User: Fold this.
Amino acid sequence: MIQFQQQIDSIFDTQVQYANHAKASTVTERKTVLFKLEQAILMHQSMIELALMADLGKHRVEVGATEIFPVLSEIRLFRRKLKRWTKSKSVRNNLLFIGSKASIVPEPKGVCLIISPWNYPFQLALINLVAAVAAGNTVILKPSEFVPAVNKVIKQIIEDVFPVNWVTLVEGEIEETTYLLTKKFHHIHFTGSPTVGKIVMAAAAKNLTSVTLELGGKSPLIIDETVDLRKMMPKILWGKMMNNGQTCIAPDYVFIQRDQKQVFIEAFKATVEELLSPSFSDVARIINPKQWERLTNYIGDAKRRGANVVAGGEAHMDSLSIEPTLITNVNEEMLVMKEELFGPIFPMMVYDHLAEVVAYIQNHEKPLVCYMLSHSKINQELIRRQTSSGALLINDFLVHVMHPNLPFGGVNHSGMGQSTGYFGFLTFSHQKAVLQTNAYLSISTILNFPYTDSKRRLIKLFMQYF
Ligand code: NAD
Assistant:
């Protein structure tokens, strides 16, 4: 057996043994460990910033806003709400169950695996860890192999806060992850691409392990004629260029009403010039040469097939940079309209009637987010009713993930299951149905053998009235 397999076996076995202890931990104990985690994150704040600068060139403001703050805010939410969320909830009886006590009791799932991606490597590893631990589980965390500096800090934080049998970080590439996926986890939470999501789900199926899949895809931005594009462009640019477009919920491509096409192009250019040029120092870099090549190939492919690069397009391998690139005259044969972009490329589709947009979205995979800029209630309603997506965000970008009471998640190709806040707690809990009836007189007393005619008549009454 290879060494990493022995290590994984050993960690998994100690977690299996510890799982009952974690399950029996009190709310106070869980809140205490969350507090320790919060303190450890605050202590390591500058190391986290340096690590994200090293791995992704992320600006400190962005690190604070999108990596550290969401985790701290999640910890605080769980510490405030955990007592209420873990309580069993009584449910009402109908006449058939009169005299019984019925309740729903959340119980921890057990030993969980969390697999996270490289684009928000700190946030996406820890935010789900918070939910898993708070719900009473043990966790093996497998972060992306492409962010070594961030992984080092996370490892240190985890080792400071948790014993190995409660939470452990296991680093690894495909080989290690493939082996991890053979273990009989009670739940797997995966964040990453739809392609790998399918691999994870297939592996989980072998053990009948439940999965949450937080995936990606092409999220459209729909803009109607009621929008002042010059005013909205700073928001649009921020939504697209946060983390250099390497955001699962970034608007992938834009649908613009034909009459507004030129205004959009001019406003885009002017806003890039005003807010980001000349140094683009607020913008993270493309993660690595492989991703840079993928993106520049997309631009090349679009040009070869007749698209027009109307803004940006400059790319430098040495700095792993690509300018915010607006592309018009695109079609579905081009890679920019086939693949999730996950970078600073913005293809633009032109429409005459909103019905065309609806038809396009309906005919493609369900996106993680549908963005709409519009002041028309009728248009907003049309998109809400006739398209399906993980989330619909109207007149803004990205911020729905910060809302403490909204679930985060995709639908079908963009994911399954939900994360964050109470929905994260539910994801890492099993909702156990508990029913206590009167031992001597209950519905089953009536249904017991022998099956007489009077019981048959009674069942007929049930069929009529319940
Ligand atoms: P990825 O799917 O390549 O990798 C994600 C994780 O899976 C990593 O930890 C990686 O090591 C592991 N992995 C890769 N190949 C594997 C294999 N063959 N078997 C087992 N494990 C494997 O994704 P990525 O490139 O890290 O991230 C980008 C993708 O993630 C995009 O599609 C993006 O939309 C998506 N994403 C989704 C969310 C969300 O919350 N919905 C958030 C961030 C990123």
The CA atoms of residues 446 and 455 lie 8 Å apart.
